[in-house]
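COURSE: Structural Biology Practicum
ASSIGNMENT: Worksheet 4, Part C
STUDENT ID: 0417
INSTRUCTIONS: Below are two proteins. For each, the amino acid sequence is given first, followed by its structure token string. Answer the questions at the end about the second protein only.

PROTEIN I
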Amino acid sequence: MSTRIRKAAKAATSSTAKKVGASVAPRGLWVEVDPGFHVGNDRRQYLGSITEIPGEGFDAFGPTSDFIGRFDELDEAKEAVIMVAGASAPSISPESLV
């Protein structure tokens, strides 16, 4: 990882934690690689990408580029991508969902 990306990721993580407060921020590292285009990973796997559609919301895509959905908020789109990628914290066991 380049120094520039590492610094940007560190700054984004610390600013997100300050803004979120007691809420839980989406897991994984999210980087805006182009204006309105975000990609995420969680150190183990590629999570997916999110594209901002001005005036309409955020289109979320999974790790295999499958369309997940359109969301009003960036954090909602990130959460959806994380859930599809299976990268969320194991707070609920899969057996309890059956």
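PROTEIN II
(use this one for the questions)
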Amino acid sequence: MLNIITATEKLHYANAFASPVRSALAALGPSVSEEAVFRFFLTNVIAGVLAGAYGKRETLVLAVGIAATFHGFLHVGPLLGHSAAESLMNGARLTLLFGVPLGVVAARMGLVSAIAFHWVIDFVRFALGL
């Protein structure tokens, strides 16, 4: 339930989210699950592993960055049919545009704020059939 979108799922999403109500409900799953896995669990595990090797701020920056990178590159599944360079660029784009900002929101304002921010992004994306 990590919202790793395959080509068939993308078609399903585009067809399933014709109404705002369906978009709002469907956006709950990915926002809660991805934020729990990447912003809560993985970031904290990475921070725990790095603790003591770096200062507190550096540890948090590295943990958020690594977790954001995992998040970004798990979403490039449908792009693997394209060139490796294009897939890498899209993974990096997703990391920088979504993973890092959501990590910063989670670190500064808490997990619930990150879930809400992610929900808004997915709601708009689903409502527009993107």
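ANSWER KEY EXCERPT:
Q1: The helical segments are 7-16, 20-50, 56-74, 84-109, 111-127.
Q2: The chain has a mean pLDDT of 83.
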